Amino acid sequence: MKTTPPLFNKQKLVLACCAALSATGHSTVFAQEETSEKELEVISVVGHKITEFEQQNDGGALGKRAIKDTPFSVDVISLEDMEIRQVNTLNSLFSREASVSVDGSAYSSFGDTIRVRGLPLDYTQSFKVNGMSINSFSGELPYEAFEQVTLIKGATGFMYGMAAPGGIVNYVTKRATSDALSANVGWRSDSVFSGHIDASTRFGSEDAYGLRVNLVKEDGDTYLDDGGIDRETASIALDAALTDNVLWTVDVIYSDRLVENSWNRFTVSMDSAEPLPDTVDGSRNLAVPGTYDGYTNMIAITGLEWNIDDNWQLKLDYDYSKNETSWIKSLNYLLNSDGDLSILTYEQYFDVDYDQIQGVLTGSFTTGGLQHNIVAGAAFQEATTYRNDGGEYGRIVTRNYATNNLYEQADVPTYVPTLQKDLALAWVDTQRSVFISDFIALNNEWELLVGIRSNEIEHEVSEYFSSSQDDYEDTAVSPTYALMYKPSASTTYYASYVESFEGQTSAVGEEYANANELLAPLESSQYELGVKTSGEGWSLSAAVFEIEQGATLVTEENYLIQEGVTLYQGIEFSGAYEITQNLSIYGDAMFLDAEYDKTTSNQGNDVAG
Predict the structure, then answer these.
(1) Domain that holds residue 140
(2) CA angle at residue 317 from 313 to 322, to 5 degrees?
């Protein structure tokens, strides 16, 4: 069911600032062998931001490059950062990133979703693990399994293929270090308890083999009245140096997450002239008793990395991921400023299987005095969706299930599920792509990027859904260009352009007059100017961007159509400064203006979202 989010205020300013103390007594994450002769590292939340530009980022079709050498806005969150800030939700992960806003919460009925530069990410293409696609309907992944999270902001169609133009979040799994073992327990409000074991070892000749295991249990009552969470996670990371030039990696992550009596979203069904009601206590839970969100995820990734010689490398990766989802949701329709609610419930099962294989060749050579750094590859991805064979289009919807009020709790009956899990093939989404990029060093200061990706998609509907959807095929070419100027080793100015193709058809919701009509994937483009610079104890970055995305509008006749574009224009600033060895300050700001353009009815209006 589609909800109506609040509008952006024009010229919205978001500001995030934080200061962090790093104490010399900070406890080590691992109890490592032979640490008596080593100094314990002093870790600062902001200290990592100061050195962030030197971090290597896997930019998909851009290859692995330092952040300062990447002509796009990139944010890197390290393991140390996540541990010190006690990251446990998508919201806390990006809490200091002004360009990111969170829709929902970790305990909402649709899980966390985020917007980057005002544009929403999607569950099916915007989240990656080690650069490979996964399905993330819950929005939450087990952060204990990862050592780094990277956010590439804006349109990323060239880098990672088809996806929403807000950006890409890439999670990098932990790797084995020396023999180490850590265990910790935690508590947070209302009464959620957690335990985490992290074990690592290296073995074999010259420590050629590595194994790292993470086990997590989380259980208790959330801050919402009668809300609860139960989560188990297990992850295994194996790496093996088969030869001096060949590395084999295997990552397996299993997560089972159940949120009970989950917080729910609202659809505003009031008269537009009526004032909004007063705010409600944040702990008030308006979910129907008996509702829940259950997600079981399994991710398995294996890769071979062959260093052919000093200049060339071949990498092959295979990814299989499975998402099993079951839920009973309640949606509240706000009827008036007195806070009266009409409640709709629905229950549903669905599974999504992902298969992806990707090969990437990287290397460098010189022609005519120009240095070329090439990344070329091909990828195949297939997502198979299964829906439960029952109810209305695979779910049971109960309109006007009950009534309630924001301020006076009504007697809402507990929902008793009736739908059985009887899955049938619904549809298959296939993507094929080839890509090549070339970073051309024109001289010691100027570098040019030229890249192109060809994408082909196919949406094939099973007989089960053929009455409501049609098969669909399309192709798109996503180019990118960038020019970088590096007056010194610590400063980069850049200008970049990239196009993106969202790659997924979308079925019109049942609340519209053209319900179940299949809308074509949207296309987007992005221009960006930026600078990244750093010095001893400080760093600064800034970017000016414009993103143009195909618009989806509702007509007066209640038809959902594609017309015109949504235009997002903004400025970002980020800086960090080390005041003393133990005190640093960090600031982040974004100024955003989002409006409809090239439309017949909403020209110049603020964009919903």
Answers:
(1) 12-597
(2) 165
